[in-house]
Amino acid sequence: MRRTLRQLAAVKPSRYLESGAPTGLTGLFTHPSPRSSLIFLYSSTLDKLSQFPESSLYRQSTEALTKHRLSIISASVPEGHAEWSEKTKKIVAEHPEVFNTPEGGIPHEAEKYVKVTKSGRSFVVSKQEKFVDDTRTEWDSEEDTVGFSNGGVTEADEAVGQAPVNPMRPGSDEKTVVLDPEPQLTADQIVDVENKIGAGLIEEVIQVAEGELKLADVLLQAQVWEDLEEKPLEGQWSYFSRDTGTGTTQTPPQK
Prior knowledge:
Blueprint: H1 2-9, H2 34-49, H3 57-75, H4 81-94, H5 96-99, E1 113-118, E2 121-126, H6 155-160, H7 187-197, H8 202-222, E3 242-243, E4 248-249
Helix pairs in contact: 2-3, 2-8
Family: Belongs to the complex I NDUFA5 subunit family.
Region (Disordered): 236-255
Main location: mitochondrion
């Protein structure tokens, strides 16, 4: 049903889904790179789960589901992915000053690229400067005298993820490394992945994966597998269980 809504929302059906196009669900738009996003999210979740005790039921159940979905999305490979992967690996190896530093970039491209490893997989994460929409920002009654210069970030530049380099900034004569975008899955491949996962549109699956990663991080920081600091009183929660031997239900203890 939801895939039908996506098709109805599309003006012109094509081989590839258009990034940012309506999906048919309110507030949910077509994701630009669902495959790489899901692989990164699932690998990050597995990396978090590996820090839980093996006896943790949460780890066991979530790990099994995450690995299952990761295998589905990994098995769906877009056309030309092998060539793109080899080219990207070559660029990363040739420019260690860009990808192998903690900051993740040469001086004028600081934090544009960050190389990270999650669950045995290597990823190159692209960080972009956040564009500030003045129409949605509350005015502080002070005159804004700072305008865009040659090194400013415009909305058009933000859309393509490439900010112009300020010629007055130190190090601007350095070389700039640009990675080609990963080849995208076709609309048919995405539908096949959605059918195999069985959890709605792939954009919904991404939202669930993002939420699971956040939950795993919260539970890890709280170390929920440890014993309670204050032990429960004997029989404190016994009234939640049913006495199957006598066929009667235990009543809560009276205060």
